Amino acid sequence: MEKKENKKLIPPSSLKEEDEKHKLILRQMETLGKIGHWEVDFVKQTLHWSEGVFYILEMDPSAMPVDLEKGFLSVHPDDRERAVKHMQDVLETGIKYDLECRLITTTGKIIFVHSLADVIRGEKNEPLQIVGIFQDITEQREAYQNLLQKELRLSTILKSEPECVKVVSPEGILIEMNPAGLQMIEADHPEEALGQKVENLVYPEDLVFYQSLHKNALQGIQSSARFRIIGLKGTKRWMESTAVPLTNQLGEITSVLSVTRDISEKVSAEENLIRIKKNQEALINGTSDLIWSLDSNYRLIAANQAFLDVMGFLLGVVAKEGDSVLILNQGEAFYEKWKGYYERGLSGETFKTYEKFLSPITGKEEHREVFFNPIRNTNQEITGLACFSKDITDLMLKRMELVSSERRYRALVENGVDVIAILSAEGFAKYVSPSITKVLGYSEKEAMEMNLFDFLHPDDVPKIKERLEEVITLPEGNSLPSHNFRVKHQNGSWRWMESTITNLMDDESIGGIVDNFHDVTERVVQITAIQTQNEKLKAIAWTQSHVVRNPLAKLMGIVDLIKTGTLSPTEERKSLDHLIESAKELDEIIQDIVLKSQRVIVP
């Protein structure tokens, strides 16, 4: 059986074997180089494309022949007019055909091609044919564009880079510097700095550090250094610079590239951090709180003096780093409790506990909050435990006092005879204490829904309005003197209240007028009764005073007569008899006054 003819390998019988090989090689070259050749016959008005053109345009070679119109339709619409005009200029003026444009493949992909061609002319210089090639340069074009973009980005980065980027000659002369660097050295224009020695800006005391940095770079060694500079306008700064060598195509070091940043704030922060660390150490060792850390084997890593003192007391020896924090001589319960805490923390749990105990040092009751936080390395593996024991003894005592005080206050407010109300300036209630029910019979809900003036006695309304207006003019926390007024009880009776009002309108927690009042009805009634009794007693005393005067005058006269010593015994006895009669008369008068007074004073 004859082998089937392979048209791609064996040329047709109509073509010479050598020509077919040349075409095959040409086809391979076109495929490898993404090249196609084309030919336009102006006489026959035909267009011929090689297989390479069809492959580039992603077309089937069997689509031949194609015409000029179809050929130009493959050109990108935005480049089509320019391509047509270039062809016309080539044919009419004789310029060389050299064109870059975009083509659109049958799949819609946009490619860039570079085309070169020669014109074959007749005896009269008329164009007969034009034969050319074009190459798909999309990858080169994209690579070029990427390179341009990279260069543009690099240039933009250098210009916008906040760090100083500079190039220095081997002699230490500044060759190039970005805007950030010029700003750091306080140069208003590049000419002020370029061509100058960099060493002139460096602190004399730090010059050795900069020189070492520059020398290392010239020897091909990348290194970093810190030094201070003085700007052209006198500003002092701390700088941190990293320098690398720059080489030419032969690998020879021609200059030094360095990136320098202003670390003045960082240095200041580091100095502050050192001061803070020293202060923290002083604070840590000066507190009664216990601070310590341990490794996964329960060995002490670090601790403040307060913890070392406690641990040393419990151990009976001086405590130090490396000692086990598990203390056996304080009993099994103590040992197991703290071992359990440490195990929880070393397992990854962050937690706190509350401890109440008698201090082994002072013998007094202590309250402490103890915090446990796992220590992790960069791989998030637990390597130890940080512990903090805060003394909250005073806080707990104050808290218990506060709770007790709050309970007493609540009991006084809820069960006291005084009513506490918070009122707006218009008399509306914002709060009423539960004792309102005992004093006036209203429930808290009823009282909250009423205005103060709803149950005031009409005669007292003007005065209360005046007091509410007056109290809000007082400074915050000041009160008006107490005042009595009448309020209608829930049962309809009128009760006298003694009220003291305080301005707390601007107090965020109150925001109103605090009215503290209580029932004084009985006291008002008693005072009124006493005043009435006093008036009656005054009248009795006034009317009886002249009755008392007569026997009293007789008594005084007889006593004076006896005192003279001139009376005979008989006269003296008669005088004594008169004295007794006057005394009896006075006694009867006094008894009469007492009886009248008893009728006035109600027991």
UniProtKB/TrEMBL annotation:
Keyword annotations of the record: Kinase, Phosphoprotein, Transferase
Single Gene Ontology MF annotation: phosphorelay sensor kinase activity
Database matches in InterPro entries: HisK_dim/P_sf, PAC, PAS, PAS-assoc_C, PAS-like_dom_sf, PAS_4, PAS_fold_3, Sensor_kinase/Photoreceptor
Principal EC category: transferase
PROSITE patterns assigned: PAC, PAS
Domain of life: Bacteria
All residue ranges annotated as the PAC domain in the record: 97-149, 223-275
Regions crossing the membrane: none
Domain PAS: start-end pairs: 405-475
Any matching Pfam family: PAS_4
EC number: 2.7.13.3
Reactions performed catalytically: ATP + protein L-histidine = ADP + protein N-phospho-L-histidine
Protein name: histidine kinase
